[in-house]
Amino acid sequence: MSSDEPVTRWLCQLKAGDENAPRLLWERYFCELVNLARVRLGTTPRRVVDEEDVALSVLGDLCQGVARGQFDSLVNRHDLWQLLAAITIRKVIDCQRWLGQQKRGGGKVRGDSVLGGADGESPGLGFDGVSGDAPTPEVLAIAAEEHHRLVLLLGDDRLRQIAQFKLEGYTNDQIASRLSLTCRSIERKLQQIRKVWEGELAR
């Protein structure tokens, strides 16, 4: 059995409304998404949202999107991971931008319930109400484009390869082994990648 078959089967089960499918996908991808979100959040304060919140939200969006028929083009684990990584990256960017706006607004940072209706009276929707959180086709296209753009910014195939491995949840030791490099070399290259991306996202 190929490694793609279980994922394809889970997606089919999810589309059919199988209540067991979300648990299987959670068991398979939650830790990897947490690791990816942790790397992307970096030194971002975790007072409002942390990497586990991001991972749970991503998997929730996947389940809802599949139920709505949004992701019919997913056919294997590679496509699924690319989608999950893109949603994760977009959520982290949205969170960081929102936190940055709050910081510039005088430091009045409260819980996500502050994100209420425009009339100021309707109950807060939290991050579910932040524009860009739902995985609409437009958001997914933006996320995929942003991911592609950030990878291209690295300008070096080896850096791009390391970044992709990291986004897929590999440890530094695993990446070093795969590329026949030392762990210290991988750490230096990851620092280069972070410097490029942080400089770009800070604009």
List the helices and strands and how they pair.
Blueprint: H1 4-15, H2 21-41, H3 51-67, H4 77-104, H5 137-153, H6 157-167, H7 172-179, H8 183-201
Describe the structure.
This protein has 203 residues and is an all-alpha fold. The protein folds into two domains: 4-135, no CATH class; 154-203, Arc Repressor Mutant, subunit A (Orthogonal Bundle). Helix content is 66%, strand content 0%. The chain contains eight helices and no strands. The protein has helices at 4-15, 21-41, 51-67, 77-104, 137-153, 157-167, 172-179, 183-201. Helix 1 crosses helix 2 (21-41), helix 2 (21-41) packs across helix 4 (77-104) and helix 3 crosses helix 4. The radius of gyration is 18 Å and the shape is globular.
